[in-house]
Amino acid sequence: MIRHDDLAHCRAAIRTGSLSFHAASRLLPRSVRDPALALYAFCRLADDEVDEGDAKARAVLDLDERLRLAYAGRPRNAPEDRAFAAVAEQFEMPQVLPEALLEGLAWDAEGRVYDDLSGVLSYSARVASAVGAMMCVLMGVRDPHALARACDLGAAMQLTNIARDVGEDARAGRLYLPRGWFVDAGIDPGAFLADPQPTPEVRAMVRRLLREADRLYRRSQAGIAALPRRSRAGIWAARLIYDGIGGAVRRNRYDSITLRGRTSTVAKIGWIGQAGLAAGTSLVMPLSAVIYAPPLPETAFLVDAAARPERVMGPWGEGRGGELVAVFAALKAREGTGGTELRA
To answer: Of the four listed, 98, 150, 180, 318, which is most buried by Cβ atoms within 10 Å?
Structure first.
């Protein structure tokens, strides 16, 4: 079980570091909310260390070690690590899921860019859909159709984040919009990173990304009715709050370079209210046929891992794909030689 003081630390970290998640989590039952806060605090800590640190490769390798220790039952002596280890053991969390998150962070550390939307979705699957699958595990949900829709929701949220942060990412030297979109628009990606401007072509890319997010938000809704009743309002709230961020970008006419899409506390309260109504309606509405849509090709491995509890444990790294092994080998080599950032 999670220690009380560790949980209090995780709760405080989320309250100050992720207002949207904190707001949505308040609608979850305590049996799900507390482990979710612990899980999210660890994931947020991991993301922040890679995003904000200077030694990104070192940060990812350090996180790999922390996950190894957590699954070995010997977590590092830190609140987030102890809480995460307790959650992984209590809920039999498939290690493939946090490994996927770590792989996405490794891609960030090596400065990977993506040629097409599928590449962006592959990244989103790792840094966001993996969290959605882990949330399902916390709710006791192993149905592959519900898991597929949870992965849709995670991907939609990540696409929304990318659309909102185009300028901020560019000024940090990061590009998450598909490189092929820039080539098709006659824009050199390197020149854009050197001087990001909200041109009509770039705004069209942001709009295109949000359209894909909208499609996934709609697909994800079908899965909420398959969740435990007491958890539906919290997930509805997360869906509405993050979609609201996309709405703010639209109101800025898709300029996410000189402007930042922001949502107010009043708006969040309104979405939380809508979430309660939507969750109540789902109690009497039949399941939508959309729930049976196949998972995105980019998230299918997450669905398979979460749906098969017999794969929960095993030697650390069991089932790691060759690409993941290669990514970590490259990071270790770069860390050892002091090399510069890689780009795939």
So the answer is: 150
b/e string for 47-67 if b means 16 or more Cβ within 10 A? bebbeeeeebbbbbbbbbebb
Quick one: angle between helices 96-109 and 30-52, nearest 10?
A: 20
Judge whether 10 lies within some domain.
no
In this structure, is residue 14 part of a structural domain?
Answer: no
| Statement: residue 95 has pLDDT above 60 | yes
pTM attached to this predicted model: 0.89
Query: Which domain CATH number covers 209?
Result: 1.10.600.10
Provide the domain count of the chain: 1
| 41: three-class secondary structure by DSSP | helix
Q: What angle do CA 235, 240, 244 make, to 5 degrees?
A: 145
Q: Is residue 2 part of a domain?
A: no
153 exposure class (CB count in 10 Å sphere: 0-12, 13-18, 19+): buried
pLDDT, tens digit (0-9, with 9 covering 90-100), for 30-55:
999 899 888 888 877 777 777 665 67
Range with lowest mean pLDDT among 83-87, 147-151, 265-269, 298-302: 265-269
Give the structural domain span for 215: 95-337
Q: How far is CA 43 from CA 64, 254, 269, 298, in A?
A: 12, 29, 25, 20
Residue 55 lies in a domain: no
Nearest Cα residue to 160 out of 105, 114, 209 = 209
Nearest to 106 by CA among 46, 193, 41: 46
| 343 contact partners, CB below 8 Å, separation of at least 6 | 110, 111, 112, 113
Give the separation between CA 131 and CA 115, rounded to whole angstroms.
Answer: 24
